[in-house]
């Protein structure tokens, strides 16, 4: 028995006709054939999908250009395409964004997945209450507030937000009282960010141009 395809051969997608020829000892021959249909019903996978990416924004543009290692298509047959939208190297604004990944194999089966890119809030990181920017919260900070109010500061403070302990958008005696109250009488803590580095999410006229005690 002779066959046009050997047992164990790999066949391509689609129909393959296998011809058989049988020849007896007298040289008489008979032929027949079968049709084998190979179809792909398994959707492709995606490997090396990035995890949730967090990025720090540029302090001037409040955006971040984010790159990542490209994911790859994983399929049981050769061919196929992978699209990533938006692509690596995109400039993202502050907030959380979804990056969509679509894998399409050679026969059109599709798998869609995604990952997220978060650009952190834009602003100078500081600790509220640390008015003199020494990394500590103590009586010297209240003195720095009073010196600023009464014009006795040796130099202008570079982070007024740190002095605004009650976060009312103004530097006043109330902030010094707030400081003493929390420090000595168990009063409420200054508004966030207090005790840890963070940004001011309150819209006001105060600014924080620089603050050396936070990275």
Output the keywords:
single chain; 215 residues; Type 1 dockerin domain; 3 domains; 4-stranded mixed beta sheet; 3-stranded antiparallel beta sheet; 3 helices
How are the SSEs ordered, and which strands pair?
Layout (H helix, E strand, L loop, with lengths): L1 E2 L10 E10 L5 E10 L6 E3 L5 E3 L7 E4 L5 E3 L6 E5 L4 E4 L1 E10 L5 E10 L19 H11 L10 H4 L9 H13 L30
Parallel strand pairs: 5-11
Antiparallel strand pairs: 1-2, 2-3, 4-7, 6-9, 8-10, 10-11
Helix pairs in contact: 1-3
Task: Describe the protein's architecture and organization.
The chain has a 4-stranded mixed β-sheet, with no helix packed on it. A 3-stranded antiparallel β-sheet has the order 1-2-3, with no helix packed on it. The protein is built from 3 helices and 11 strands, in the order E-E-E-E-E-E-E-E-E-E-E-H-H-H. Helix 1 packs antiparallel against helix 3. The longest helix is centred in the C-terminal third of the chain and has 13 residues, at 173-185. The radius of gyration is 34 Å and the shape is rod-shaped. The protein is of the alpha+beta class. The protein has helices spanning 139-149, 160-163, 173-185, and strands at 2-3, 14-23, 29-38, 45-47, 53-55, 63-66, 72-74, 81-85, 90-93, 95-104, 110-119. It folds into 3 domains: 2-38, no CATH class; 45-119, Immunoglobulin-like; 123-215, Orthogonal Bundle (Type 1 dockerin domain), CATH 1.10.1330. Strand 10 (95-104) and strand 11 (110-119) form a beta hairpin.
